[in-house]
Amino acid sequence: MIKKVNITIGKKNLISDVEGIEVGNAENTDLHTGVTFLKFNDKTRASAYSFGGAPASCEIELLQPKNTVEFIDGISLSGGSVFGLAAGSEYVDTLKLENRGYKINDTGQSIPIVPCAGIYDITEQNYSNISSSIYKKLAHEAYLNSNKDFLLGNSGAGIGAVAGIHKGGLGSASSKIGNDVMIGAITIVNSVGSTVIPGTGLLYSSMYEFNGEMGNNLSENFKDFKHYQYQPNIIETTKFYREPKERQNTTISVIATNLDLSKLELYKLAKMSTSGLSRAIRPAGTSLDGDIVITISNCQRNYNEKDYNFSFICSVASDTLTRAIGRAVYNAKSTKGLKAIKDIIAKKE
């Protein structure tokens, strides 16, 4: 029998509520692209699951349970597609100077492990000026900016993100189970699918909202349900309405916990947590997305399934990711030619 347990949000309602994690953001406001770096103060075990058809990534295969390396030294989330993956090399060089990384026997050598994932935010306007060097420079800034506190919405890798036909962005959330288990999520929402229920100002993720973290989106806009229509609005609220091209999308996410989960358990956690993405975005994991979920543990709290059923842990993680996606879109600000959901709701009022 599973015992009843209280679930609350963390102190900051950010992934940094999981001890040992800091987040750094940097943006190029002229090119509307940026990077987000997750910095770890403790040893961090990791795995990942990719379920989109067009990922831009590096070192994700290394995180599969069958492969050797268990621990990583940071995570790079970036705009710029393959160009943005260059941010990872800047982090690797910096971490090497700190003697962080996978130790090679008795050689004294350390190989920093930094998985990278990128979104496609390249446009006709910024393409000619996009290069790997831009992301290396931004990565240096993001590393120096690493902090427990960080902004949501048009920040870091989320500055150029688009969710369906609305402004996307960076989101984060946390959940505390009982008194000692912490789960956090961070995401960059740049999806083909829509985060908004057709014909309404409601976010799909509003059903999971905690303490007004999305502006009481459900209660404030519930009356909009009378305008809901399956057709044709499901098309009109997604990028299909704008004839999306391959690799011009992707939602990349990280879920963290203080539970000491094995690499295989982290893989299962990543796989099950994709349901949280599917609840917040419709459709998700398409052949035009490069959706990836990376899962990490700071290994600080022993895990005993007698305390908490593993499927229950995965379910809370999924809900936390759903909320992070909602907070990304809710906190986004309109840019030229692209409306944020807040402005659309305000116009309805």
Uncertain regions spanning at least 5 consecutive residues:
none
In CATH terms, the superfamily is L-amino peptidase D-ALA esterase/amidase
Order of helices and strands: EEEEEHHEEEHEEEEHHEHEHH
Number of domains: 1
CATH architecture: 4-Layer Sandwich
Strands, total number: 14
Quaternary form: single chain
* Discrete helix count: 8
Largest sheet: 10 strands, mixed
Instruction: For the record, give the distance between the C-alpha atoms at the N and C termini, rounded to a whole number.
Output: 47 Å
Helix content: 10-25%
- CATH top level? Alpha Beta
- Tell me, briefly, the overall form: globular
The CATH topology is L-amino peptidase D-ALA esterase/amidase
Structural class: alpha+beta
Mean pLDDT: 90
Beta-strand portion reads 25-35%
Radius of gyration: 19 Å
